[in-house]
């Protein structure tokens, strides 16, 4: 298997579009492509999955550590001809200004994979050689083997860019110059690109993207600079899908609940779970025979009218929580368990003015947690988070530390003091206070925890579900 990492000096360089084009071209040549995404992003992996026909897996050295990154890479790349890894932000951007943790550069070193740099050439000429030289030499252990220029204005512009790099950095191959093309833009909104569930990339878009990549990118040279991976020097653990005592867990997955780490699902299966996917948008009830619920993140506010109108599903989730079923909900799943999403025109009203007896004059959700959710015009939270459990919970014992990510444009009313807080939250060592709310056996939070940061989380949750199933029978 070969491998390459598509990186960039900064966000917005066009690496997602170019990564998708490369994946589609390789797939059309009959190659099996294993897709990956560095960092905590959920949206780009959805597009990777659409192109490659197999799950795209997040690789994050800060959340999960180096050993887990290596193991999950070789596990999910098994059987592929080439692994294509899309980077995050700029090549060396990670947890902070000194540490490389969480960066694309860290992933490149862990995987031994070469880096191809996508550079937005708009407004630049010979100076790009200085930029590329800086990235190529910043860390000698990171191998920058190629560069792709994006937003190139003309053939003359492209020739200047190519000459500048080739005259100063003969070891870095100029793989192509992609012209400016508004037809290659992918719609976006506050959390980034539209999800693939809402914008599944029409065939005409993919055909045009392939045409541009084939005409302006040297795919043969790309294949040449891609590294041939050796046998993994890591232990690949069995998933244990058929182990005795397996338990059935419902997982919400549809256009409203589409933000979930693939390795979270894998680790649940590895712990003995049979995962039953269901749609809070379309289904009238929960899957039969489940003993636990996982409500991932997504865009419940975008589909608030449909979710609010599905009374049968809301009642089924409410009954499950009230019965003591183990439930884990994060971000969008947490919002779904709140009283609902307020209509934007209600933001200026006091809580008493928003509805009779504190009700939500907007879209009513499940109502397990007695607070309403508001969408904001600006981002409310972004960044890595570390949590420590203040009490035993469905995902771990008191003192258990796990890592994750928080990114949302919404906020909730202040949670009543009688609702138990379970997470002590830290960001880069700074105490952010208590979060993670529990009602009976339901734990909900804005934070997307990666089970790879503490793999026994999945096993603990499965064991709680197994115990619930035994009590219920």
UniProtKB/TrEMBL annotation:
Keyword ATP-binding applies: yes
Domain called CobB/CobQ-like glutamine amidotransferase: residue spans: 248-454
Biological processes per GO annotation: cobalamin biosynthetic process
InterPro entries assigned to the protein according to its UniProt record, in alphabetical order: CbiA/CobB_synth, Class_I_gatase-like, CobQ/CobB/MinD/ParA_Nub-bd_dom, GATase_3, P-loop_NTPase
Family annotation (SUPFAM superfamilies): Class I glutamine amidotransferase-like, P-loop containing nucleoside triphosphate hydrolases
Keywords, sorted A to Z: ATP-binding, Cobalamin biosynthesis, Glutamine amidotransferase, Ligase, Magnesium, Nucleotide-binding
Metabolic or biological pathway, per its Swiss-Prot or TrEMBL entry: Cofactor biosynthesis; adenosylcobalamin biosynthesis; cob(II)yrinate a,c-diamide from sirohydrochlorin (anaerobic route): step 10/10
Listed EC numbers: 6.3.5.11
Top-level taxonomic group: Bacteria
Residues at the site labelled Increases nucleophilicity of active site Cys: 448
Keyword NAD: no
Gene3D superfamilies: 3.40.50.880, P-loop containing nucleotide triphosphate hydrolases (3.40.50.300)
Other known facts: The a and c carboxylates of cobyrinate are activated for nucleophilic attack via formation of a phosphorylated intermediate by ATP. CbiA catalyzes first the amidation of the c-carboxylate, and then that of the a-carboxylate.
Protein family (similarity comment): Belongs to the CobB/CbiA family.
Protein name per Swiss-Prot or TrEMBL: Cobyrinate a,c-diamide synthase
Source organism of this protein record: Geobacter metallireducens
């Amino acid at each position: 298997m070969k491998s390459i990492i598509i990186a960039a000096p900064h966000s917005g360089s066009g690496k997602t579009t170019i990564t998708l084009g490369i994946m589609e071209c390789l797939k059309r040549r009959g190659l099996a492509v294993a897709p990956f995404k560095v960092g905590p992003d959920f949206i780009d992996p959805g597009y990777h999955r659409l192109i490659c026909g197999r799950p795209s897996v997040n690789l994050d050295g800060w959340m999960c550590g180096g050993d887990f990154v290596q193991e999950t890479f070789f596990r999910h790349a098994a059987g592929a001809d080439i692994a294509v890894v899309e980077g995050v932000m700029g090549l060396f951007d990670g947890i902070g200004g000194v540490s490389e943790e969480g960066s694309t550069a860290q992933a490149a070193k862990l995987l031994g994979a070469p880096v191809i740099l996508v550079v937005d050439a708009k407004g630049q000429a010979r100076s790009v050689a200085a930029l590329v030289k800086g990235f190529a030499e910043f860390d000698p252990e990171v191998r920058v083997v190629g560069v792709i220029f994006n937003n190139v204005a003309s053939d003359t512009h492209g020739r200047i860019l190519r000459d500048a790099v080739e005259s100063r950095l003969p070891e870095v191959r100029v793989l192509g110059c992609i012209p400016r093309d508004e037809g290659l833009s992918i719609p976006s909104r506050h959390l980034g690109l539209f999800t693939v569930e809402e914008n599944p990339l029409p065939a005409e878009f993919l055909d045009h993207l392939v045409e541009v990549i084939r005409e302006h990118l040297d795919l043969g040279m790309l294949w040449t600079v891609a590294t041939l991976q050796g046998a993994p020097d890591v232990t690949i653990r069995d998933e244990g899908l058929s182990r005795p005592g397996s338990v059935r867990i419902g997982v919400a997955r549809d256009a409203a609940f589409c933000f979930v780490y693939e390795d979270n699902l894998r680790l649940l299966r590895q712990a003995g779970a049979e995962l039953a996917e269901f749609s809070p948008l379309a289904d009238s009830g929960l899957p039969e025979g489940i003993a636990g619920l996982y409500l991932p993140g997504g865009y419940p506010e975008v589909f608030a009218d449909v979710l609010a109108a599905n009374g049968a599903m809301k009642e089924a989730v409410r009954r499950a929580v009230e019965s003591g079923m183990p439930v884990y909900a994060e971000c969008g799943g947490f919002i779904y368990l709140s009283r609902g999403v307020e209509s934007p025109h209600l933001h200026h009203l006091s809580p008493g003015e928003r509805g009779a007896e504190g009700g939500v004059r907007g879209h009513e959700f499940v109502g397990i947690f007695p607070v309403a959710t508001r969408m904001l015009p600006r981002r409310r939270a972004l960044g890595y988070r570390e949590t420590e459990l203040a009490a035993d919970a469905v995902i771990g014992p008191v003192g258990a530390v796990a890592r994750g990510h928080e990114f949302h444009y919404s906020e909730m009313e202040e949670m009543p003091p009688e609702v138990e807080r379970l997470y002590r939250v830290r960001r880069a060592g700074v105490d952010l206070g208590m979060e993670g709310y529990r009602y009976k056996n339901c734990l909900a939070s804005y934070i997307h925890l990666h089970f790879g940061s503490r793999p026994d989380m999945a096993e603990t949750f499965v064991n709680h579900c197994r115990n619930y199933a035994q009590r219920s029978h």
